[in-house]
Amino acid sequence: MIQHFPVLAVMSLFLGAFLVEIFGTKREAVRNAITFVTFTLVLILLYALIKPVILEGRVISYWMGNWEPVAGYAIGIGYEVDALGLVFAIIAITAFWLSNLYSFGYMKGEHHLGHFYTLFMMLCGSIIGFCMTGDLFNMYIMVEIMTFSAVALTGFNTDKDGALEAALKYLVICSVGSGFILTGIALIYLQCHTLNIAQLATMLAGRLTPTTLMSFGLIVAGFGVKSFMVPFHTPLADAHAVAPSPISMVLSGVVTKAGVYGMIRCIYILFRAMDLTQMQILITTFGTVTMFLGVSMALKQHDFKRLLAFHSISQVGYILLAVGLGTTLGLTGGIFHAANHMLFKGLLFLAAGAVLHQTGGITDLDRLGGLSKKMPHTTICFLVGAAAISGIPPFNGFASKWLIYQAAYTKAIESGNFYYLIVTIAALTVSVMTLASFVKITQAVFFGQLSEANKDVTEAPKVMLVPMYIISALCLITGVGYKFFASYFVLPAVNSAVNVTNYIDVMMGDGYAAAAGVSNMAADNVMISSWSPVVYLILFVTVLAAACIVILASSGDRGRVVEVTDKDALKHSNFFSGEEPVYSHVSGSDMLWGYKHNFKAYYNIMDKIHTGRMTDYCSMVVIAAAVIIVFMFMFMR
Amino acid sequence: MIILQYLFYILIFPGALFTIAAGLLLAGIDRKVIAHMQKRIGPPVAQPVYDFFKLLGKETIIPATANRAAYLIAPVVSFVSLCIVMLFIPILGFRAIGGAADMIVILYLITIPGAALIVGGAASGSPFAGIGISREMVTMMAYELPLVIILLTVAKKVGGDMLIFDLGIVSAYQAQAGSLITEWSMIPAAVAMLLVIPAEIGTQPFDVAEAENEICEGPLVEYSGSPLALFKLSINMKMIIMTGLFTALFFGGIRTGFVITDLIVFVLISTAVMLVCITTTHAITARLKIEHLFKFYWTVVAGLALVSAVLVWIGL
Q1: By the 8 A CB rule, do B79 and A547 touch?
Q2: What distance in Å separates the CA atoms of residue A134 and residue A79, rounded to the nearest whole number?
Q3: Cβ contact (<8 Å) for B148 and A443?
Q4: Which of A139, A252, A495, B204 has its CA 20 to 30 A from that of B53?
Q5: What's the first-to-final CA gap in chain A, in angstroms?
Q6: Inter-chain contact B84–A413, Cβ cutoff 8 Å?
Q7: Distance between CA atoms of A332 and A497, rounded to whole angstroms?
Q8: Contact between residue A253 and residue A314 where contact means Cβ atoms under 8 Å apart
Q9: Residue A391: its chain B contacts at CB < 8 A?
Q10: What is the C-alpha to C-alpha distance for residues B83 and B169, in angstroms, rounded to an integer?
Q11: Segment A489-506, tens digit of pLDDT
Q12: Distance CA B289, CA B205 (A)
């Protein structure tokens, strides 16, 4: 029974997409019912797989049409679900379920919603299929469906300025990436005459011929494009700025993660090249550059969603850096951060969407301000998300970043390579820069003074607030219970990434891996950790309680809180050096001046690089892919 | 019994009460010594205590532009999180709660009061506060880089080929091998740390965020009454925490054998550190501009720390 669940999950989403198109274009209730039921069904199907796959460590295989391998050669399309794939699929479905709930409020009243939900479910189905398939070409097909539905959804608000341009950029850059992947797969097929990942793993591991090396380089570059690492990051900022917010949430939380997942699947399982020092240096370098460039560009943005988009790039840099370390601790941190990033970045995009929705489409940081008085719930959720992404304990962002710092530093002292110490320092510094850019948003959007134009803004509707509060709670829960999540949710995924023999045997028959001479990577499952959020919370509550007791016991008439009345309005107005107070709001562009001034030369270069022209961006992609391939040919032969 | 013991740790020593008392004492000494350096008599050493209680008695005015909840919660969060940090810093040989948080975690825990100050300032809605939090954030970014390098250098020096972030082990190592300040390769890092402390606390020449005669105390401009008292107290508590962290990192090898004498020595060293890095620099310098501050930390101070990191890395 249970082995049908993965296929059923993917099928129900694609089926739901058709049903919405047929029955859901006219009536809102039917449309919402179909999407909600389908997403809930898939959510249940995938969560039911947690026990056998993640906790018991089983690998579920499913041959489409029962075309099993003949004489050791896989001929049919096989689905193979191990803990690694399932963790990413669960990240995906959780994000989609919440995003779908939110979209009921956010998209209300838009035109062509039938098409919207069709594409939305296609996107979800393709990503889940991508995470669960055991066939390389099937992976490519899913990537294509994913890219095209994401492109169409990005440009969904065609009447919005720049929507078509953003969609076109996204389409062109990602198609180049898909081309890389397809060429890579073709080269592998040329060499090995099979497309099954499990079987290929026995053929490719440790035997990098020039042809497979070429395809390896192309696949790494291709999934690099899909995960939007620098210098492939260029379409993402535009896409996020114009996409509807539920789409922004899944673009950043899930679509970029699909690229990361493809990268992990290929490097760790298909080519098993992660123990090569050069490979580690290649991926960590890309990760570090992505991390720093993303956050430094974010600090300069003055569009709410564009700023968040650059943070997506930066956080994917963290994940790539951790994955590229090639240690189990690093992979644990990376996958955990991928899950956490889906949560907190989703939350931030939903909060941004709420602001955009309620103010009538303003995302310019210089035109907002003081919204916390009008939208208190959104403000609370935003602050939780901001604290989580900036790595403030005890939220989840800190827990996963903390694992990544430890992994990077352990790598530094184990390999004796000073380079990894620099990487660790960069990771720690990027974290405080992240905090800085969220301080900027906090001041520019939620605090400060309310402008005349936004006087009548109201709080977002409940259907939008509920997903935000759910994610806020999850951010705190995964942060406080990070040891539990890391050991029961993430660590099995890590183990399945390093223990390839089990993956191969389940698919191809017992003893296949041993016969082909494949052995597991040495797993060093150490989670050194001396951060205990529970102790911290207990201490916090104790001191807080004591402080409250002291305050209550000593508060008489003295120190009372005085309410504002019209009579003493002057007393409660802002201090203005004795002048009459006027509206003056410190907005986004005014912030962090001392930093921007010092990085002027750097930003001049960045402005020159980010021209906004598609041709330039395409040549960046091709040049970077060439660099990756040349690097591999020079150092990994 | 064990609960009572931990309650004592949390609320009295080395938690809340000790941190408050030591912070106020250090602030008093600071003001007195600066006054003497400037040929004034200065206030009595207990003046910060009087100031604190005076502020508690004042009316709390909430500006009309403020977000009331954030404005009032921020000072409490700042104060409470600082009370806890002191529990994780070893007082020479004595350590109240071990294994719950190490150096890197402490690095993040001491950003919470900064973040609380920023949220509180932003929530007041004043433009002076807006400028102030912008500067405060740039200051935080500025000193975080050298601080990170210093902590990793200490970890490498103590741990060698092992991952040691735990301050308890740092302290135990120094008790055996001698305090880290005696290692010449650690001197640049110690100097860098001495320069980080005044920026973390926000005293001259690094008080750009609060610059009284320029932006009227920045984030604190609208605060009055007990919230202001808590923020002022937080700044004083940061003095003992940062100088205490310096003592734990670089003078951690000193042992007297008794908790009481350890405590006295710890406070004495912290006071000495404060006199060097806070009081003296305060008395002899004028305020920097924010862009110069940022540049100073990312070049000179980070450079000093990096020199130590390289020296330690090659095994000196």
Answers
A1: yes
A2: 5
A3: no
A4: B204
A5: 45
A6: no
A7: 10
A8: no
A9: 108
A10: 22
A11: 888 888 888 888 888 887
A12: 9
